[in-house]
Amino acid sequence: MEEINQKIEEIKANESPKKGKNISTNLFKKGHSIKSSGRHKLTPEERLFKQATREVAMRILKKHAPKAAKNIVKLGNKAKNETVKLNANKDVLDRVGIGVKPSTVIPIQINFEEARNEFK
Asked: Exposed, middle or buried: residue 45 (CB in 10 Å: 0-12, 13-18, 19+)?
């Protein structure tokens, strides 16, 4: 929680001050919540909290990405379950850009009577 508050302070220091806006740094007061669904317009405090949380989460995920990649490769090589091996290997290929590309679906209509008559 403290890390997010520090990130908020960092973001605030890099932004130009807005006239009449006073955003609290302690967003973890009892009863504080951020609505993430519906048409709720975020307050400046909520936007700042959301941005800081996202930046902290991305930093943590980037830090652990190499180990996660190694674990996926390890599963692809050593998993006992063949489905786990297959899915891990597909994930590796997808992440390096050579996995299966989604196919394009083209709708067509066939008149089977005409097709049947053509092959008589």
From this structure: middle
Q: What is the largest CA-CA distance in the chain?
A: 84
Whole-model pTM: value is 0.50
Q: What share of the chain is helix, strand, coil (3-state, %, to 5)?
A: 60, 0, 40
Contact of 28 with 52, CB cutoff 8 Å: no
Spell out the per-residue pLDDT of the chain, length 120, in tens: 778 888 888 887 776 555 444 444 444 444 455 555 566 788 888 888 889 899 999 999 999 999 999 999 999 999 999 999 999 999 999 888 887 777 777 887 777 777 677 776
Q: Which residues contact 26 (CB under 8 A, 6 or more apart)?
A: 5
CA distances to 88, 103, 117 from 80, rounded to whole Å, are 12, 31, 54
